[in-house]
Amino acid sequence: MDTTQADTEDEFANCKPVVIITNEYLEARIKKMTALQPTGPDVWVSPLSDESVRGYETDKQPTNGGVQNIYKVVKILEDAGVSCCMVGEPALIYYGTGRVKMEWYVCVPAELVEKAADLIRAHPDVFEPFRPSKMSRNRGMEHLYPRFKFVGISLFFILMSSRAFNLPCQPDKIEYSSNGIPYPQLAAYAQSLLDTYNLVDLDDLVDGMNLTLEWGEENLDLEGTMDAEWGRWKAYALHGHDADADRIPQWCSRPPKRRDTWAKTVSAESKKNRQGFKYSPVYETRFWRRGRKDPRLRPRANC
Fold first, then answer.
1. From the CB of residue 182, how many other CB atoms can be counted at a distance below 10 Å?
2. How far apart are CA 278 and CA 281, in angstroms?
3. Whole-model pTM above 0.70?
4. Is residue 20 scored above 90 in pLDDT?
């Protein structure tokens, strides 16, 4: 053995072994971590570990966020004459935001929710009814509607009523991604978020598509105020018709004007402020880099 070979062997003698990360390795680590979780009345466990969020330990992870899986749901519904479109995080991602998708929200006409649920229940080998997610949003309505999981896959979806989003779920208000997934047209979705005073999602939609005051003037109904009647309907749906006055959103008593809210949301100052300390002059909004094109024009596997 020459000196060079001996030096090389000495150099690697104290190195730790290489661990190849495989799916089997990850599954084994997850099981070990789960077994070590503390239990007891004073132990707080993250809802992320709940089966209603991550599925069963034996479930496989969906590819590309489950686009091809959810396409099967769309096909079942549309073949039976039930129009549908994706809302919530899936729609915001489609329109270029940085949202994280926990599950799919499938919006169907209010009068067809039960029919849609029966169509899904007719395939017990593919879908199974599931309890509401432990990660349900604050003051959300998801727990009121049928929720399902794909059998053997960590992938959930909820059949939501169009009334819950104040959204016209009809073919002439729907467009399709390159993967055949239906989404509400931009104007219909923006109007829905504006009328329901959903400012968090509206901010994201504006920043995802870099919408302007002029676009709103051309494509939205900016006359009048937010839909206070819808706000009361939601409160009654959540708490019953005898709901206390404090259960009804405060904005319903004096609904803000649509035009004022839109103008403030799309202003250059608001777009800059929403970037916070991450502000960069190369970005017009949090998600829109200067010179960027409509995100719908480029192929994306997750939409």
1. 21
2. 10
3. yes
4. no
Could you tell me if 215 and 189 are in contact, meaning their C-beta atoms sit under 8 angstroms apart?
A: no
Q: In this structure, are residues 178 and 85 in contact, taking their beta carbons and an 8 Å threshold?
A: no
- Report DSSP state, residue 224: S
Q: For residue 18, what pLDDT is reported?
A: 64
CA 195 – CA 213 distance, rounded (Å): 16
Instruction: Give the model's pLDDT for residue 139.
Output: 78
Which tens digit of pLDDT belongs to each residue from 167-216?
999 999 999 999 999 999 999 999 999 999 999 999 999 999 999 999 99
Residue 53 has phi, psi (to 5 degrees) of: -110, -50
pLDDT digits (tens, 9 = 90+) for 260-298: 999 999 999 999 999 998 888 899 999 999 999 999 999
Two tokens, residue 65: 């966020």
Q: Is 36 helix (H, G, I), strand (E, B) or coil?
A: coil
Give the integer Cα–Cα distance in Å for 236 and 16: 62
* Average model confidence (pLDDT) across the chain: 91
Token code pair at residue 156: 């959930």
Indicate the burial class of 254 (C-beta count within 10 angstroms; 0-12, 13-18, 19 or more): exposed
Task: Please give the Cα distance from 296 to 245 (Å, whole number).
Answer: 42
**257-271 as b/e: b if 16+ CB within 10 A:** ebbebbeebbeeeeb
Query: What is d(CA 119, CA 80) in angstroms, rounded to the nearest whole number?
Result: 8
DSSP class of 66: G
Q: 57, exposed or middle or buried, with CB in 10 Å at 0-12, 13-18, 19+?
A: exposed
How far is Cα 218 from Cα 84, in angstroms, rounded to an integer? 26
Contacts 24+ apart (CB under 8 A), 168-172: 169/83, 169/84, 169/85, 169/107, 169/108, 169/109, 170/83, 170/109, 171/83
